Batch of 2 targets.
Target 1
Amino acid sequence: MKNPFDDLKCAMKETIFKDFSFSDERKDAVKETIREKHSSQQLHSWKEKTIIAVLESVQHESKHGYDISTHLFQKNDFSFQSNEGQLYTLLHLLENKGIVTSKWINEKKYYLLTMKGIKHLANSKQESTKKQVSLKHLLEEASL
Amino acid sequence: MNELEQLTIVDTCMNDKEQIIDQLMQAYSEGILYLVFTYVKNRTTAEDLTQEIFIKCYEKLDQFNHQASIKTWVYRIASNHCKDYLRSWHYRKIKLDEKMWDHIPSKSKQVEEEIIAKNQETSLSRAIMALPIKYREVVFLHYYEDLTLAEISKVTTININTIKTRLKRAKELLKDKMLKEV
């Protein structure tokens, strides 16, 4: 008997794969999801300016979350308006990265810039774009 | 660089990535769909999974290191995604329950199958689809997709010698089956 695989391609095409293809609707659905994912990603990434403003607010004295968010409003940064939870996500990331440290006082968590954070802040202020990008990379890495 | 410029750069990157995925879909969507079908044996599930696979490709595109060819990379994602699916709770608990119905013989189905079975091509495809999954995947990749053993090894992370053995064993199984039917 001859090799049964010889006719395989033709046989499968004519039977189980017949009239079976990845439709344009399906392809469009993929593209749609990609676009959605892209835009939602942008919502969750913070603006450079915002990150620096947060770092600056805890540079000299420790502050709790609400204080930081008021500080941002005063600086006309409304990134976390009606989305305050995101501020805490950012703070936790910064804490994980060792950029800020925290202490519990009277059931409130106070954040303060660490030495590492001070360096990062100074760097990002100096060589604005390049270092800012690296700070952003750092955070993206941490949020994975 | 101001923020606007930064945004436009991100946007072109985004368009590039979208275009790459678009091209990948033009080139491989059919092959991927068929590969997925050989794993899951269900058209709708195959379409759903293929959709997920291309989204995964988009997410992982940055991790493609240009060492492998993009084709084997995409196929590997597909193969892994299917295996994950077959291991998933959903598949094991829900889809297998549905499958139970296939084993309860119904008269109309038997008649239908008898007619189909006369067709040689159908019986060959059926025999292939009835092979255990580890043979099915290598048979499909080698004989349908014409991938080399080295490429199959990259896609499935199976050792080349193991692939050889499996292809040989698959051939024996298939011959047995076809002989019985004739």
Target 2
Amino acid sequence: MARLTIDDLRKIKEKQSSDFSLRKGGYSAKVTVHMGTCGIAAGARDVMSALTEEVTKAGMDNIIVTTSGCAGLCAREPLATVEIINHPPVRYCDLNGEKMREIFKEHILGGNPVEKYALVRGCETTY
Amino acid sequence: MAAEPKILIVDDELVVIKSAERVLKSEGYVVEGALGGREAILKIEQDSYDLVFTDLKMPEVDGITLIRWIKKSRPSTGIVIITGYPSQDTIKEALELGIIDYVPKPFTPAVLLDVTERAVEWTKGKKVEEEKMTEKFPPAMEAELERVISEYRKKPGSLIPVLQRAQEIVGYLPPMVQKKISKGLNIPIAEVHSVVSFYSFFTMNPRGDHNIRVCLGTACYVRGIEGVLGKIKETLKIDIGETTENRKFSIEGVRCLGACGLAPVMVIDEETYGAMTPRKAMEIISHYDPSVMSAAAAGAEMMDEKGE
Amino acid sequence: MEKFRKNLVLCAGTGCVAGGSMKVRDALREEIKKKGLEKDINLSLAACSGSCSEGPVLSVYPDEVFYQKLTAEDIPKLVEEHFVNERLYEKLIMREPEEKSSIPAMKDIPFFRYQVLRVLRNKGLIDPEKIEEYIARDGYQAAAKALTEMTQEDIIKVVKDSGLRGRGGAGFPTGLKWEFASKVSSDVKYMLCNGDEGDPGAFMDRSVMEADPHSVIEGMIIGAKAIGAHNGYIYVRAEYPLAVKRLQMAIDMATEMGLLGKDILGTGFDFELEIYLGAGAFVCGEETALMRSIEGKRGMPRPRPPFPAQKGLWDKPSVLNNVETLAQIAPIILNGADWYRTLGTEKSAGTKVFALTGAVNNVGLVEVPMGIPLRTIIYDIGAGMRKGRKFKAVQLGGPSGGCIPEGLLDIPVTYEDIVATGAIIGSGGMVVMDDNTCMVGTAKFFLGFTADESCGKCVPCRVGTRILLDILTDITEGKGREEDMATLEDLGRDIIATSLCGLGQTAPNPVLTTLRYFRDEYESHIRHKWCKAGVCRDLTTFWIDEKLCKACGACLRACPSKAIVGEKKVPHKIIQELCVHCRTCYETCKFSSIKILPAGFEGDPYELLGSEAKGEAKGGNE
């Protein structure tokens, strides 16, 4: 990759923001599996592989599947966040592969959050 | 061991003698003290000691003089020096006179015990140590070790990274490996050893095929890691820092794995297991070696019935 | 409190902030001032209400009107219409204020409501292995600003004015530390990051390094510019393999893209960064010891002065900052010192990350504004005690800290208030303990740690901690003597006064605070051979209260030494001679019928426990 100038930095920011904005990027959903040390130890890898398997099976290419670090609530790991276009993100807790499959079908494909596994909706506070 | 090893501590400061005595006596060694070289010689004339720990800088009869005298008149006695700020030359001289080891002053109880243990081993026929010194590693391992050493040769402050890589390659840091590193990096063996014994990450004992790391952090303590550790020790019949006879498992106690949310935690090789109970820990360990479960025997069965 | 005519609540959830919440806030403030409405209108920020797709969202109370998709440009019109003309600004009205959902919003769950993320601003949002995602969230913008628009003095001034204090333990002002090092002239200087995180019970730094490694790197670039360093190291524990991996990837990517190395972003500034793996020694958290360790030696502290700002790593001027401190830097540079001071207190500004663990329901990593009461952290964010057990103490600051009792839970979390209790904020480990924890045992646990980790260089620490540990061990084994308590206190104070480095100077804190707040437990151990928590094996008798026993057989089956007898419908009994005091029955019983009595107790248990219960009801909190 070429060395960046300050201008490039701004361009990356803009491009990346639109890539990741579901609307502008043409995506329908984004799923983040939280994989810090705690999450992995609690079984986040199983959740991730169940998810990727379902996405592949469904043959969908407009879903972003990604990972991130610790989500902070270690007691309820593994955690994952599902964001459907035009809806607030929903965070699920105490997951396993099976629950993830169910969430995939109900929430990601069907658009109905799976309330029994959900912890919270919305974003965390930053200011 | 036939009789408890007998040790003489020589130092011109009473506090050093007292603190060494305190540490060593608690481990069952027979310990006496001498305030200076003259008193030491008189004592050694009268009695025989397995080991002598001596300071170098002392008024009247200094450490080097004492060592020369012991080598001449009591050659079977093992000698370890304890010293505050050694110059490279005096250490070198002492090494040439044939001391076993070197304890930097001030020392931690762990360092002192560690050195004592090995010094005792050495005096018990010198054989064990010599075997280790000549222990051969597979050529590939040797070559890799050489490569790492030469890679770091010119970098300042490279001793710790090299030791880390060496431990990755060999699994532990026996004297032979330390010697190789000392030579390769041109750092005195005493300094290499002092670094190895200072950091808890380094081990001089071979580890088992599976290394069980048990978290001894506060959160794990509060949530009952002691019971889990007790069960593992009892079942495998080894303590922290030891390896089972069949070299299958070793147990290591770590300060905090930083996975407090899952407390109590243990890690086997690279895999982290959280929310441990004695029973769960035994189940997991038996995945690595099914015979463990039968060793856990009655107690475990009983707990199974309980069903949480 | 003043009464305002209108209360405006602006959403400060990550989604809304990314959509421009902060610009909207500034515009609102300005407009309110312009119209002279400061006395009438109160503006505050709040946790996410879950209307993220409509953000930024503003709620107006008591009108119960909600505006959506705001921009700074809309604000003058909106203020004019709603607050001057008292008409709704139809264009931006949100018709359905909140999505109909039974899933609670962040603002409804205390765990999220009380937190404000600054250090953890990217927590759970970005893929730490992709630098583009960090850049998308304003990453490296602060570095760019610092390298192009700011002088060394500018940077130092902002950091000083922000009131940021080192988050590693001592709370030394970060800006001052940088200023000292910047004023020393030297061809070589070092910018160092302490990721050693040695406190048992703390994992803030691990999480930050794993979840957002670039935020640490960016903080280091800015610090390097401020002090004039061109080389740096991140010292990380080898026990944190994932953190090491992600940091290394981050450094590699940043170097490849010209954000590290020579001529960063074409500005002509050079900064080379390397990772140095620690080898596990608690004392290496002390800055001079850590520097010795990077030099490849035994990590022993040395006396100061000279301070590391003058003579540090390889005798060159060096600055060592903690991971969390560095992660705070970029937003301070971007948003300014005043922004940083909007949270926290005068002397303890901003936010602090805590690793909340132990006997609470919500174990996790939390970031809160300084000054929040301890009780809020434990009972709201932590959702109270696990299994409904009784709170006993909260331990702050690891082996250098202390145990704080129930009676002090309402104090605000600031450096000064916590120090006044005898504990310290430390790096942010917060371990909650319930009545199953023995406080003498806890003090012994920490002393065992420090005695073992003492590097041995100075006598008070090396010998003193060992003696404290021996006395504590005696007490927990039933060999305690009345005068032990005074000895612990005297010796503890001596060790604090005479030790060479922070490890020794703080090592007695766990003993002194437990003696101060839980003296009754020491007395009970020494005088009555009774560990009421049932932890010290030699000081307990487990006894089944026949009146409560349901004869379910659970304890009987669980007992590893077959010391319990009984049958269905016949209350069980423990044969003391066979009991090994393992607690298994105590933890198994679902009816709390197993009680803990003093060692070798022969009197009437009902009488003893009855008088205890009465005493407790009378005595109340400390």
